[in-house]
Amino acid sequence: MLLEVQDLKKHFAVRGGGNVRAVDGVSFAVDAGQTFALVGESGCGKTTIARLLLLLEKPTGGAIRFDGQDVSTLDRKGVQGYRRQVQAVFQDPSSSLNPRLKVRMLLAEPLLAHGLGGDRTALQRRLLELLEIVGLPPGALELYPHEFSGGQRQRIAVARALALQPRLIVLDEPTSALDVSIRAQIVNLLADIQRSFGLAYVVIAHDLALVEHFSSAVGVMYLGAMAESGPSEAVFGTPRHPYTQALLGSAPRPDPDHPPAEGLIVGEIGSALAPPSGCRFHPRCPHAMPQCAQQEPVMRPMTGGDAGRAHRAACHLLDEGLAMAGVERVKDFAPTP
Ligand code: SF4
Fold it and tell me: With a 6 A CB cut-off, is 153 part of the ligand 1 pocket?
């Protein structure tokens, strides 16, 4: 497994006491050539996970293993090597690309910083190669970011992320700042690049249509914890957690057989400073039972498969007795009065 995240935690101390439990025991894994998507509402902790993967934050607990090595044990040289292999593409290329630099410098910068530029000819060849990979003409090298459209700027951001030949790219909402008409082009480009170079992606997205078509596995987060995870076809095809069902039900879907059902998720996500007792989703869950406010449900496998790939969900409705009774979908239950 290329990347393994195990029981990852990030708590932030707040003035006046207490901790914001932004990430509170999250596990997932992704292998070369695969895409793991993290989905959930704003404030669920997925962006903090991206920052932890990029070593922009230090975890409070748990482990990130890359190629079998715990990244917290890396020395300076090891961290440099990790940073070369793990790159990022952010939501808004207008703010992630320095507007004062021409594309030539934007693409050359990471190569030069890591001493991988080579001589002038080799550098020029590599820059042209990068432009070709992302579908931009050679003349783009002499232009500034503002001279491109939003979609083209995101292509430049992808080219810059590819410059160091990484093995994993963290894609943080890679299409949400773009026009709807451009999104599919960027998704197709990312998919082509993944096929060509065997890259692994961790994608963070609100856009469930993007996630469904683009990811091999998905994790649904709620208030810092994983509510459900597994292969995309299982999570999207037979969602088992009430939050996943509500999230999918309220997401706009292009499929006429699955029209959006408005208002399935009521209320606010709540505070990671004082998450609800028991199941964090219980104040908003239409199926909540008395035990839901007292006891935190644990992730249970819904199907067979190895631990990294099994379909898992954390909900008391899926606890042994109920799951054994042949209950297929939690929505078969009536809400507790
Ligand atoms: Fe709803 Fe209870 Fe399941 Fe939480 S554990 S999702 S509150 S039924």
Answer: no
pLDDT by residue (tens digit) across 40-76? 988 889 999 999 999 999 999 999 999 999 999 999 9
Residue 101 has pLDDT above 60, yes or no: yes
Is-contact 286 335, C-beta < 8 A?
Answer: yes
Are 279 and 316 contacting, i.e. CB atoms less than 8 angstroms apart?
A: yes
Could you identify the atom of ligand 1 that is nearest to the CA of residue 292? 2
318 lines ligand 1 (CB under 6 A): no
Atom of ligand 1 nearest to the CA of 293: 7
Nearest-5° Cα angle at 4, 154 to 14? 75
Q: Is the pLDDT of residue 39 over 90?
A: yes
What's the start-to-end Cα distance of the chain, in Å?
45
Q: Indicate the pTM of the whole model.
A: 0.89
Instruction: Point out the ligand 1 atom lying closest to the alpha carbon of residue 242.
Output: 6
Domains and CATH numbers, the chain: 3-215 (3.40.50.300), 219-253+274-324 (no CATH)
Cβ–ligand 1 distance for 279 under 6 Å, the answer: yes
